[in-house]
Amino acid sequence: MLAKQLLLFALLPLIQAQETVLGVYIFHRHGDRTSKSWPPTALTDLGYQQVYASGNFYRDRYIDGNASSAIFGISSDLVKNSQLNVQAPVDTVLQTSAAGFLQGLYPPVGAALGSQKLANGTTVEAPMGGFQLIPVNAVQSTASSANSENSAWLQGSSGCNNAIISSNNYFYSQEYIDLLNSTAAFYQSILPAINTTFTAAQDNFKNAYSTFDYVHVSEIHNATIPFGDLLTPEVLFQLQTLADNHEFNLAYNATDAIRAIAGSTLAAQIVQQLNTTITGKSASQVGIQFGAYAAFLSFFGLAQLPAVSVNFTGIVDYASSMTFELVTNATVSNTSYPSSSDISVRFLFSNGTASQNPLTAYPLFGQQDTVIPWNTFVTEMNKFSIGDQTSWCNACGNSTGVCVATATSTGSPSAQSTVGSSSGGVSKAVAGVIGAMVTLAVILGVEGLILLATGLRLVSKKRLASAAATQGTETGIKS
What we know:
This protein has two domains: 18-108 and 126-140 and 261-448, 3-Layer(aba) Sandwich (Rossmann fold), CATH 3.40.50.1240; 148-253 and 458-471, no CATH class. By secondary structure, the chain is of the alpha/beta class. The strands form three sheets. Strands 1, 2, 5, 6, 7, 8, 9 and 10 form an eight-stranded mixed β-sheet that branches. Strands 3-4 form a two-stranded antiparallel ribbon. A two-stranded antiparallel ribbon has the order 11-12. It has helices at 2-16, 45-63, 92-105, 110-113, 127-130, 161-169, 174-182, 184-189, 191-194, 208-221, 233-251, 261-279, 293-302, 374-381, 389-396, 428-448, 462-471; strands spanning 20-29, 84-89, 115-117, 123-125, 137-139, 286-291, 321-328, 343-350, 360-361, 371-373, 419-420, 425-426. Pfam families: His_Phos_2 (PF00328).
């Protein structure tokens, strides 16, 4: 007996130090879709399967009764919609992707749980085997059009004037001009395979993403591509790598932060949602946002992830997701909730549906550790987040529409959140300000900066030189 007690006392510190997940925020890309070259775009059956599988993966990780990293207080079978905050722009592909993901996250519960007895004694079963209805908040920007996935170039509708100017400046850069010239022969060599959609004048690096999107979708869904023999693995790789370079430069620039407006507004939403989890003591534990790959690239740049791996400069694949986990080693119960000083954040990323691609932790902001204190996370995010209307209008240089009221204001009010020492999170007043703007601003960023994408793989720039050598084409991309 004494030996067992000694063993229990020895293990007690380890038991007490067990990590608890308090909440998560997931930013997710849509699944496989039809080509933007032939609108309207639509989620394919393959895309549906991808997002459903991803939702099921996150269920196994966070929701299920036997989840590997179960979220504190989460309802495991019957969904409690108060615990979820799910958003997607007013776009067919993104909305349906979110719906498919949620079917995997909370599948039908069957007749036992999916039924209720009425006052007259009648039992009513939910349709489709207990299918669970989960609302997806449809967010429509006042500056952007609906069905954004139909458009190959959305910078003009981002609504942020300075971001539009910044991205357009890339087309005057020496790097862009060099690539436009050095890849001209390469693009013309594949014209016979794409000339039903692109003219010779359009077949160049300026349309790097649109060209790859068309070819990429065709490779997945069209078994009889005209002159398909021209599209060798080396050519496909080159098309992808050039599109990666093109899109990252439109989404982020180290010396011109406004270009990454998508990542800045997304950062504000992440902080706002996670802070809501803390201040509400995990009453609302799960935030999910479906959006475009532009926001991934912008956030990657702002969070200094390219310094971790050059692969963070490439277009993310279909159904990719990045996840922010609120974790603590403190005791958590219905009567005891940790303070902000005992809470940390872990960032994870999966390139492609998480059911098939490992969800891997990476360090943010040039830090060494993959788990960083909540207060540090908020401070670092606030260095580039834009989370209120006045700050967004000032940063974007806008003076019309929603920005009329702030057009004459001076200075640049801070968009930063503050950490309340007693509340355990960002002060509720500041959180409210962030929340008021983020519905507008995150979609301006998510829908706006650049070409909304197909699912391409993250590509190491070091591999570009190999592809260029294979093609005999000098790309001019700097590693």
